[in-house]
Amino acid sequence: MLKKDGKLFGKISIIDIAVILIVVLLAAGVLIKFSGNQNVPVSSGEKLECVVQVKNVRDYTVEALKKGGPVFDKTTKEYIGTITGVTTEPGETTLLLNDGSYRNVETEGRYNAYVTIAFDGKESDGGYYTATNKQMAAGSSLGMNAKYSQCDGTIYEVRHAQ
Questions:
Q1: Which residues have a Cβ under 8 Å from the Cβ of 38 and sit 6 or more positions away?
Q2: In the chain, helix, strand, coil percent, each to 5?
Q3: Residue 22 belongs to what H/E stretch?
Q4: Are the beta carbons of 151 and 72 closer than 8 angstroms?
Q5: How confident is residue 15, by pLDDT bands cut at 50, 70 and 90?
Q6: H or E stretch covering 52
Q7: Cβ(50)–Cβ(117) under 8 Å?
Q8: Pairing between β-strand 127-130 and β-strand 135-136 as defined by DSSP bridges
């Protein structure tokens, strides 16, 4: 079987077999590493929307948000969706009173904006995801760059678009 020159059956070197075996094992390892089940949907297609609460912003920020346009994640610069609506309520500040109690009072010239963003995404067991696999969950923060403004908010609600 093994000849004097180190070849198996006189044709294949043992070193050649070892190299081929190592290459096959490395390819299998890479395939397993990068094709595992990650529980994150990679496809999108459902029409979803989220409402982001942006607290205590000035009126010109509200007006800039009302102009609509695309929204991008502030950190990753990935596209999230499009602003479809903005509602407001007076902004509030919590004050500590002399008797030790707290009271919410309206802040003049400040508003809480509720920004509705429509996006294509997917719902899975882990929640809602954008087309770029960013998780959109109520209570999580969202830094957003809109066409005419930049602000940080908290995701208030995520739902299927109506």
A1: none
A2: 20, 55, 30
A3: helix 14-34
A4: no
A5: confident
A6: strand 46-58
A7: yes
A8: antiparallel
Q: Which residues pair with 151 in a beta bridge?
A: 144
Say if residue 10 is in the same domain as residue 64. Answer: no
Q: Name 58's Cβ contacts closer than 8 Å, sequence gap at least 6.
A: 109, 110, 111
Q: How many domains does the chain have?
A: 2
Question: Using CA atoms, how far apart are residues 30 and 87, in angstroms rounded to an integer?
Answer: 49
Q: What is the pTM of this model?
A: 0.69
Neighbour-count burial of 162, counting CB atoms closer than 10 A to its CB (0-12 exposed, 13-18 middle, 19+ buried): exposed
Rounded-to-integer distance, Cα 76 and Cα 74, Å: 6
Q: Are residues 28 and 53 in the same domain?
A: no
Phi, psi torsion values for 136, nearest 5 degrees? -115, 105
What are the pLDDT digits (tens) for 70-84? Answer: 999 999 999 999 999
Q: Does the pLDDT of residue 42 top 50, yes or no? A: no
Question: In which element (H, E) is residue 62 found?
Answer: helix 59-66
Range of the domain at 12: 1-36
In the DSSP assignment, the letter for residue 137 is -
Residues 89 and 69 in one domain: yes
